[in-house]
Amino acid sequence: MKAAKATARDARFAILMDGDLTPTDRLRSQVAGARAIAADGGMRHAAALGLEPEVWVGDFDSTPDELLGRNGHVPRHDLPARKAISDGELAVMRALEAGARSLVLCGAMGGARSDHMLFHIMMALRIARERDIEVLLTSGTEEASPLLPGKPAMPDWPAGTLFSVIPFSPLSGLSIERADWPLDAVEVAMGSSLTLSNVSADGLRILLGSGTAALVASFDV
Q1: Domain boundary residue among 140, 170, 204?
Q2: How far apart are CA 19 and CA 143, in angstroms?
Q3: Structural domain containing residue 178
């Protein structure tokens, strides 16, 4: 008997991470119907997003007893506290092994540890480039996504959204159409603020010729 083909729902995963999260209507719509995996303290976001994680990954050394008790029915994958990879990355790896083609990393953009946020963005860039997988990082009030060379980005942000293109390498051939500050095939040095704090209009389109970059957008709530 042939195995059934994966459905769109089977291919989209929400990874619940332990950063700040505001459960906006936009975020709820982005994860509606997705399979979910919780990474340690990220389980605290499940109820607000209407998600039931199929597995809970973590070392649980700092997870409150109340959260553990309330979600004791969720299958757990216990990990050692001392390990070479974060709980969040291990949760992402589990989703990829399960056939994920789209990832929404919830709680990946905020929190007390800015180093975690930077690693999440770099991980998303690597996954998108190596596996051709859509990755969205979100806190509900802020989103980030990889900008890949040769693939036009046409975000569904409301007109007036504040956004930046963050260069993680020198960029070439960067064009931005339908924004307050349009650009036409420009070069951007790594670390330049040229692409900081733009404002989108309807029909925003962004194209990168070469380089490594991420889009970051902020939303009024």
Answers
A1: 140
A2: 13
A3: 162-218
